[in-house]
Amino acid sequence: MLEIAIRHNFPGFALDAQFSAPPGVTVLFGRSGSGKTTIVNAVAGLLMPDEGRIASDGWVLLDTAAGLRLRPHRRRLGYIFQEGRLFPHLTVRQNLNYGGWFAPKDAPRGEFGRIVELLGIGPLLERRPGALSGGEKQRVAIGRALLSAPRLILADEPLAALDEARKAEILPYFERLRDEVNIPILFVSHSASEVARLATTVVALDAGRVVAQGPAAEVLGDPAVLPTGAREAGAVISAVIARHHEDGLTEIDASGLPLFLPRVGQAPGSRLRIRIAAHDVILSRARPEGLSALNILPGTVRELRPGDGPGTIVALETRAGRLLARITRRSAAALELAPGTEVHAILKTVSVAPSDIGGGGPQG
Amino acid sequence: MGWLGPEEWQAVALSLQVSLWATLASLPLGILTAYLLARKDFPGKQILNGLVHLPLILPPVVTGYLLLLTMGTKGPVGSLLAEIGIVFAFRWTGAALAAGVMAFPLMVRAIRLSIEAVDPKLEEASATLGAPPPWVFLTVTLPMALPGIIAGAILAFAKAMGEFGATITFVSNIPGQTRTIPSAIYAFLQVPGGEGSAMKLVLVSVAVAMGALLLSEYAARRVAARVGGR
After folding, report:
1. Which of A58, A164, B94, B230 has the greatest CB tally within 10 Å of its CB?
2. What percent of chain B has pLDDT over 70?
3. Which of A45, A130, A148 shows the shortest C-beta gap to B229?
4. Domain A234-359: which CATH number of 1.20.1250.20, 2.40.50.100, 2.40.160.40, 3.40.50.2000
């Protein structure tokens, strides 16, 4: 368990954040300028906050009250930067081994061969970073961080500099890290789909303050917490693949509720996390008939959250989990929605983007 | 070397010896100074910067005279060093000292610029991977600044080859001891019939300067390609 409490004043911006990160992936989620990178840099020791305490399982990195500020090289963290920051004068192999030169000899290091294979960078080992593509660089950066025998992995928007295709290439590696490597990961993101796919825990930040923290499904399904705005709202459900159909659909089982998605790659029985964007959900009071949409989820309205504009966010409890729907206030009034109202949530299969479907992961 | 007479050859060999020593001996100090000026903030930084650049602006004769006052046998530093057997006055070592001092600003300037061009974010990355500050410098900053260090060293060497005013003021013009190429040219021009010898040394000077320039260009290119990551 990583525990963080820091306070730092910049000209025109004050950070005052306190949260704890249990094992798994903790995503710091918020708009740019909300203080995410500042927090990660404080954990890495690249920024010394005015006051605070940072400790991981009793290993104290910073305690200003006790006058303790560990230098960055003493912290044993694997920091994956947004721009990769590979050493251009070293080969990929030397980059990967760099952290190992300084790690304590008895530190449990990731096995070189296994990590190279996990990241698929075997053919790149003798090249220099200048000859790599953006996606390849980022995979090497992940490997370099893992092989430095870190107690904690920090990732500051490691996908932000990549195009959609490269993101789709790298994201599964982070899912595998979460599921196969037993090191806590602190991950910065402003992308709702990255959060939905990766997060075990979400820490939502706004203007330097923590506005919510908890399991991903809970925080993302809370209409009061929309760190990147109502337009980006969306809940996460988890489900198991039931079977693949011949017409290109995959049937999943969301706590007993059958849902249909565009074909996903994983085998039946695999666990999925699916982000359902609030603007893709239609609500109906009666069970709709003769509709093209394949997914109809009965549920109960839990909360309505009108926005500044004409929209309102409706939070629903369904058997598949908590959902958010973004509809107009006019529709909410016409349907007479209120907490406790029985509704049906309708979701078009094709509106679920492949980038919103992630593999594996613990429940919640 | 039939082409050069013994006197001329002596001047060329001495110049190469003096310049090589001036360059090699001042290189570690030059790198350290450049690093401090490029990366650190400390009280007196502007004073250090000024001191380093002083020989560039002062008349060389003044620099030579100041060296004579401080490092000469009766000077405060020179007399101390003489007790442990290091003598500069009227020796080739003094010529190397004068050349090193005169070349120092050029060397520091080239190295400082190349250190400033190293992305501090790479140094941060190195620190997060566990490298203590000296290792960050040795494994990231230094190799990435190498093209500038080579350029600075060669520039300093070329400057040392041409140093005249400070050298002749500090250590005079003694054949075989302090008579480097420029001093020799000057001496040849003072005697009737010396123009031939002077011209030969001028040609050697031009050749060495051109060679140094080409070499530095080649070395910097090679290193830049490597550091550039291909």
Report:
1. B94
2. 97
3. A130
4. 2.40.50.100
* CATH number at B6-55+92-227: 1.10.3720.10
pLDDT at A123 over 90: yes
Q: Pick one of 3.40.720.10, 3.40.50.300, 3.40.50.1010, 2.40.50.100 as the CATH number of A2-214.
A: 3.40.50.300
Task: Report which of A67, A2, A18 is spatially closest to residue A208, judged by C-alpha positions.
Answer: A18
* A92-102 helix and A134-146 helix, angle to the nearest 10 degrees: 20
A97's CB contacts (< 8 A; 6+ apart) are A112, A147
Q: Which of B121, B122, B126, B129 is the best mutation test for A, with the most CBs of A within 10 A?
A: B129
Q: Tell whether the model's pLDDT for residue A260 goes beyond 70.
A: yes
CA distance, residue B147 to nearest chain A CA (Å): 12
pLDDT (tens digit per residue) in B70-92:
998 888 888 888 888 888 888 89
The residues near B85 (Cβ < 8 Å, ≥ 6 apart) are none
Q: Is pLDDT at B229 greater than 60 in this prediction?
A: no
Amino acid at A189: S
Which residue spans of chain A are classified as CATH 2.40.50.100? 234-359
How is the beta sheet containing A295-306 ordered, strand by strand?
A281-284, A342-347, A295-306, A311-318, A321-328
- Tell how strand A51-56 and strand A234-244 pair up: unpaired
Of A77, A89, A103, the CB nearest to B143: A89
Torsion of CA B141, B142, B147, B148, to 10 degrees: 80
State which amino acid sits at residue A41: N
Whether A158 has its CB under 8 Å from any CB of chain B: the answer is no
In angstroms and rounded to an integer, the radius of gyration of the C-alpha atoms of chain B is 20
Query: Residue A142 in contact with residue A173, Cβ under 8 Å?
Result: yes
Give pLDDT tens digits for A273-287: 888 888 889 999 988
